[in-house]
Each structure stands twice: as C-alpha cells, then as structure tokens.
Amino acid sequence: MISGRVEVGTRALMAPMVGYNEAPLRRICRRFGSGLAVTEMIKPEKLLRGDPQVLRDLDFAENERPLGIQIAVREPEDMLPALDLIWPRGFDFVDLNMGCPLKKECNKGWGAALLRDPERVGRLVGATVAASPVPVTVKVRTSYELGERSAPDVVEAAVEAGAGLICVHGRTKMGWYREQNDLSAIAAVVERVAGRVPVVGNGDVVDLESALRMFRETRCDAVMIGRGAMGNPWLFERIDRYLNRGEVLEDPSLEDVRALYEEHMDGVVEIFGEKKGFAQVRRYAFYYFGRFGLGNEWRRQIAGTKSRAALGAVLDQVGSESS
After folding, report:
1. Same domain, residue pair 22 and 103
2. Residue pLDDT, tens place only, 236-255
3. How far, CA to CA in Å, does 20 sit from each of 25, 34, 264, 310?
4. Residue 261 structural domain
5. I need a surface site. Which of 33, 101, 135, 247 has the fewest CB within 10 A?
6. Residue 293 or residue 68, greater confidence
7. Which of 217, 245, 273 is the last residue of a domain?
8. Global pTM?
9. Domain final position from 212, 245, 278
10. pLDDT tens across 19-36, in order?
11. Active-site positions?
C-alpha cells in the first residue's frame, strides 16, 4: 500500500498519538486489525543525545510490523544525522509529522507550521527519501489557519519529492480538535494525487458508520483512527470485516474488555515499572470501560485509585452492576 513497498493488510490504521503509542498498545492494535503501527512523535535531537525515554519508545517486537517511526523536524540537516541511528533498528517506514498543532512545536517550525511552506516540505521530504532505505510517508492537516486549505499544495510538493503515502487530518492547526472535521478538504487531497500515492483520511472516525462515511465522501484509500480506537481496538476488525465480508461484528463483552485491559496493563507495567506503569495505564480505564455507561461517581473512584488492586476492586463493582 505504501508505494508498493510495504504491504498493509487492512484499510483501518492506528494513528500515532503523543503520550499513548507505547509498544503494548501498538501490539494490541495490530492484533485486532490495524494494518500498521506507528511510534509516537520522535524528535531527532533527543534521539541523538540518547534520551532514555526515546530509546525505550523505539523498542519493538516483530508482531508490531509493519511499523513506522514518526519524526517531527523542520530542516533536512536536523533530520539526517538521526537517520543513521534509526535505520539499524529496522523500521518499515518513516512518517514525517506535518500536522502536530502543539504551540511549542509550531513555534520551532515543526509539525503544522510546515503547512505554510510547501517548498520547505518538498526539500525535507526529498532529502529524507534520498537518505532512506524505506518508504517515507507524510501526515498533514488541511491548513494552518482557519478558512484556508493549503493541504493540496503541500501534499503535491511531498508527492513530487517522493512521499509514498499521505495521511490527512481534516482540521486546521488553529482549529485544533474543536473544529469540525472537513471531509471535503480530505477529498481535495485525494483528487490532487489520485493514482499516484494512497491517501489516508483521519479525524472523527469513532465507529463503523463514521469510517464508512469517510470512505464514501472522500474516496480515501484507508482511514486512520486515533482517539476512536482508544480502549476500542475492536474497531479495526469491525471496519475490516464489514469492508471485506459485509458483516457487522458484535460488541465485545465486559469480560472481553476487562481481559484486554489487564493484558494492556501488564505490558505497560513491564516497560515502565509498577508505579509509573499503573499511572500510565489507569487513564486507559476511562476509554476501555466508558462504553458501559460509567457515571461520574465511577470515574471519580477510578481516578482516585493508587494501585492495581484498588483499581481492580472498582472494576469488580462495575462488573457486578453491569451484569
């Protein structure tokens, strides 16, 4: 699917999300049908100075493949030295982030700031492609400012420079996540590069219906799912099964959700240790169990837990009241 060099088995893909894409989540999403996995956004200067957290985030297992590394950078000279440290790790593709809306990143000229400069985008993609033994993909938003639509020109520059896949989030930088996702803007990118590279639509895909709407109204090749798959990796399989067989899978039971959540917690604690790992994965409880109509009191109790045992006791009560 990525310029014919990386086989992606499904048309539902997990999105890279800052603070969330640890290896256990990547493995779970792949197992439940995501066609690929991506690390969270990496900054080359941290990799070059051997930042322990970055090095840990880059560890992966074979069952996460195809796996890409997402990088945020402004100039080729900032990127190229880090690439020599990346290639030996065996990633299947490199994803250049041109959509991150965080102010501190945009102030450095990274992320969505690049949407203002198609020429710079072309240079950055071209230099990365020339240095890369694996495909280079690009993730963008529709533009920087509200009311603008620069993505087609930015994407054109990226594709001309050799990008093998484009992902478009249908919001502007200034629209953050509050703005309505603009499917027509994604469709405009699809139309611009049709037949040259695959285009992935991103934004507000939270269930089968919203995924089908994305496909129908944009004619994109695949959908990328971030927050909609948090605690709900079953969504990848649900989309894939419907597209291929026309079947609608049943929702997972509370027992299924609890078992997967425990597995997720085990994996995170193994990496981060009991204390930090628990703090990391406790927040996933709201995503996993929110589907069962948790009220404010249950959410308060979960947020107040200090250990796995305490959290388990709260979830036991959730289970008894849901049965």
Report:
1. yes
2. 999 999 999 999 999 999 99
3. 8, 16, 12, 23
4. 254-322
5. 247
6. 68
7. 245
8. 0.93
9. 245
10. 888 999 999 999 999 999
11. 100
